[in-house]
Write a structure and sequence with these properties.
This protein has 289 residues and is an alpha/beta fold. The protein has helices at 20-29, 99-105, 115-125, 142-151, 164-176, 213-219, 233-245; strands at 42-47, 52-56, 62-63, 71-72, 84-87, 90-95, 132-136, 156-161, 183-187, 199-204, 220-230, 249-254, 261-262, 269-270, 280-285. Helix 2 (99-105) runs antiparallel to helix 4. The structure holds S-adenosylmethionine (SAM).
Length: 289
């Protein structure tokens, strides 16, 4: 029934020019903070007008920028993170990308879960290093990035999607963030049950979560937590009813609104524009029967 999707996938985002040894090092380095930029690293280049570029540093590669001549990426190798880089018409800061940067810069072909929602999902589901988590609806893999970052190095995320093109896209995005080793990407046919049991948490980002309740119940450990993410009231109402009828308890629903503030001496005020709506978050717990 199940297919471990990675068997058939060739990573495309991490440069194939990296030696196997260096590739291994790049993956291992995901677990520790680094001081110096090395070949193969993903670096976030931040300009003072808040324009950013996320690039993989490789020799013989140039990055076209909006402030003058292209940057030779080889010149970044050996420089400390946090350093300023002089460019033709200004300067830029060299930063180690966060998982938020990877989520926001991920190539997208679906709607994604935003960092503001992902942060609360991780907290409410109690996901931590070592957790085993099922994700239903991989999409572009933005939420997968946040889940994986949290469970490493001993946990695992099992992410399911019906569409192979989304699994490939998500794998490329995870590979770029050096997080792919901690994920199993799985093709799902219909609403079939999941291959894992006794998982710590399940998160669903599919349009009809009420069809998934029995499969979720079969895979989740007693006391395990589930989140269903949907954009409309109708969907969370129907999902809430289905979880309740299946015996789930501690049902909570919420929406996370983040309003940016412009902090400027003597005239600090909220930003005029904000993201008014993304997803509603529905949470529930599976009790022992
Ligand atoms: C909105 S996208 C998920 C986006 C993802 N959370 C992210 O942050 O990038 C929904 C995905 O669910 C998949 N999907 C829909 N129904 C499904 C089901 N029953 N089982 C597995 N995947 C499903 C779709 O193919 C689509 O890729």
């Amino acid at each position: 029934m199940e297919k471990f999707y990675r068997d058939t996938f060739t990573p495309i985002e991490m440069s194939d020019k990296l030696s196997e040894e260096r590739r291994e090092e790049v993956v291992t380095c995901t677990l520790s903070r680094k001081n110096m930029i090395q070949e193969g690293d993903q670096v976030l280049i931040w300009f003072e007008d808040d324009v950013t570029y996320l690039v993989q540093v490789m020799p013989n590669r140039k990055l076209g920028i909006h402030q003058g001549r292209p940057v030779e990426l080889a010149d970044l190798i050996g420089r400390p993170y946090g350093d300023w880089l002089d460019v033709e018409n200004g300067r830029a800061l060299l930063l180690e990308p966060t998982v938020e940067d990877h989520m926001m810069k991920a190539r997208r072909e679906s709607g994604i879960i935003y960092p503001k929602d992902a942060a609360v999902i991780l907290m409410k589901l109690g996901i931590r290093s070592g957790s085993r988590v099922i994700e239903i609806g991989t999409g572009s893999g933005a939420l997968t990035l946040a889940l994986v970052q949290q469970v490493i190095p001993d946990g695992k995320v099992f992410t399911y999607d019906r569409r192979e093109d989304f699994l490939s896209l998500a794998e490329a995005n995870l590979n770029k963030a050096s997080l792919v080793s901690y994920v199993e990407l799985k093709k799902r046919i219909g609403n079939e049950p999941f291959g894992e049991t006794e998982v710590d948490a399940v998160v669903s980002d599919v349009p009809e979560p009420w069809h998934e309740v029995e499969a979720i119940k079969a895979s989740l450990k007693n006391g395990g937590r589930v989140a269903a993410l949907n954009p409309t009231y109708n969907q969370i109402e129907k999902a809430s009813d289905a979880f309740q009828k299946a015996g789930f308890v501690k049902i909570e629903a919420m929406e996370i609104l983040v309003r940016g503030i412009l902090p400027r001496l003597g005239k600090t005020r909220p930003e005029q524009r904000m993201i008014g709506h993304t997803e509603f978050l529905l949470f529930a717990v599976k009790p022992a029967s």
